[in-house]
Amino acid sequence: MLMGEYLHSVDVKGRIILPADFREELGTTFIITKGLDRCLFVYHQSEWKILSEKLKQLPLSKPEARAFVRFFFSGARQLECDKQSRFLVPGNLRDYAMLEKDVVLIGVSNRIEIWNKVQWEAYNDEINPMVTTIAETLTDLGI
C-alpha cells in the first residue's frame, strides 16, 4: 500500500527522485498521468491495467465518459527510474500540475499523487476544516 508524504524538488531537467518507500511498491517502471485537482497520478503497472480496463467499460455514448477517458489516457506515459532513482516528468504533465521547484509526493493507497507544494498546502488548508464533516458522512457508508 502506498502511503506517506515526501517533499522533493524538480531538477533543472524536470526529474524527481522517487522515494525509497514508493520504489519498493512501484518498481522502476510505472505509469504517470494527469490526475484530478491539478496533480499527477502515478500507478504501478498492475494498478494501471485495472484502472484502464474499468475506463474501457465506460459508455462511448456519454460525452462525460469520453472526456474522462481522453483526460486520463492522453496524459499517460510509461516512465522508468534512472540509477539515481529519478524519473523525468514530461513537460506537458509538469505544466498541467504546475510543477516548477518544490513538489510533494503522497501515497494514496493504490497510487502516488505529485503536487506542487504551494497547491498541496492550499488544498490542505481548504480541506482541513471539512475533515470532521467528511468523516461523519463516511460513517453513513460504514467506514
From TrEMBL:
Pfam families registered for this protein in UniProt: MraZ
Location(s) in or outside the cell: Cytoplasm, Nucleoid
An example Gene Ontology molecular-function term: DNA-binding transcription factor activity
GO cellular component: cytoplasm; nucleoid
Top-rank taxon: Bacteria
NCBIfam families assigned: division/cell wall cluster transcriptional repressor MraZ (TIGR00242)
Protein name: Transcriptional regulator MraZ
Lineage: Bacteria, Bacillati, Bacillota, Negativicutes, Selenomonadales
